[in-house]
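F.,

This is the one I mentioned.
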């Protein structure tokens, strides 16, 4: 997915800031839009010694070679260990963290207090910025409050409202919008994805997420979820929880609880749209079934259920017991149909 071509206006806006960079710049937008790749490309461009006329890094100079190998002395990437794992976690070993840790943030101290290479720019990319607990966020905030000279923090966030307001206030925000449906469907078609319209709808219009879903090989759990949710008041919450917990375990970290909750949130959004006589947004093939279910659910229950699920989404990051968590989520769903 060529993010520069897909977001050429955002790229042009980034390049326009080269001569007067802020201390902190935050790219925000839906998951799967290529925000992280945009940040990486911009960082490479800023560190490059001979950038191209297009603003892209040359890919040939010494700085570009260092960057490509992941050892540029003026670049640091803060992200959860789980995002950097390429191989499956061996049984018995500790699972990689889904969070940016406070030790990672504290590890920037020496980096920020040493002079830059050849007197150039120092860059820290944080992805995703919301993957921090409060202590870690406060540690990062102290760094943002007293920025080191010649330093740029490039923050990436799909959920900026989860961030501390004080962190958001110290960043210049740059929204990354959804591409047009035509553009996004072309990206999927060029990648060989069958039925791009369905995948794009399921991803909420984000082509990167649509590609990820289509290539994940985990469609089975989604089909299980859809089948169970379509049962409405006849749904078996405990059986459903067991099936989804098994899918999460067997995925070995590729399927997360929060992903299951995200899918349920989208289902509730479609129910709400159907309740108001509007076309569904995410589950296009199930539009008729969703419309039928919406007819028998009071509108107020849908609103309250969605609000509760927002809290559940946060709990899904670190549940005490995955099975009990899923049982609670699906018992709440069945309660939508109570007389």
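My design for it:
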């Amino acid at each position: 997915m060529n993010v520069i071509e897909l977001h050429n206006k955002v790229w042009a806006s980034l390049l326009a800031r080269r001569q007067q960079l802020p201390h902190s710049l935050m790219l925000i937008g839906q998951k799967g839009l290529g925000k992280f790749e945009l940040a990486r490309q911009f960082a490479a461009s800023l560190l490059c010694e001979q950038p191209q006329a297009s603003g892209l890094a040359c890919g040939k100079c010494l700085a570009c070679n260092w960057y490509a190998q992941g050892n540029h002395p003026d670049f640091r990437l803060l992200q959860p260990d789980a995002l950097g794992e390429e191989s499956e976690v061996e049984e018995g070993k500790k699972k990689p963290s889904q969070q940016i840790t406070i030790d990672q943030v504290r590890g920037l101290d020496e980096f920020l207090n040493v002079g830059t290479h050849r007197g150039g720019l120092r860059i820290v990319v944080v992805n995703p910025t919301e993957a921090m607990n409060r202590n870690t966020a406060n540690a990062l905030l102290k760094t943002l409050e007293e920025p080191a000279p010649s330093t740029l923090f490039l923050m990436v966030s799909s959920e900026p409202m989860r961030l501390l307001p004080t962190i958001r206030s110290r960043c210049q925000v740059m929204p990354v919008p959804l591409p047009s449906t035509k553009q996004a469907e072309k990206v999927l078609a060029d990648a060989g994805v069958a039925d791009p319209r369905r995948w794009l709808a399921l991803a909420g219009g984000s082509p990167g997420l649509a590609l990820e879903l289509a290539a994940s090989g985990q469609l089975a759990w989604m089909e299980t979820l859809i089948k169970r949710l379509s049962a409405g008041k006849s749904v078996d919450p405990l059986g459903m929880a067991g099936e989804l917990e098994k899918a999460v375990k067997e995925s070995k970290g590729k399927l997360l609880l929060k992903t299951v909750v995200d899918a349920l949130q989208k289902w509730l959004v479609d129910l709400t749209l159907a309740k108001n006589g509007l076309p569904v947004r995410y589950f296009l093939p199930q539009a008729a079934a969703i419309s039928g279910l919406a007819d028998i659910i009071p509108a107020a229950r849908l609103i309250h259920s969605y609000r509760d699920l927002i809290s559940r989404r946060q709990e899904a990051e670190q549940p005490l017991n995955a099975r009990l968590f899923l049982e609670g989520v699906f018992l709440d769903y069945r309660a939508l149909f109570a007389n």
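Residues 51 and 58 are 5 Å apart (CA to CA).

Talk soon.
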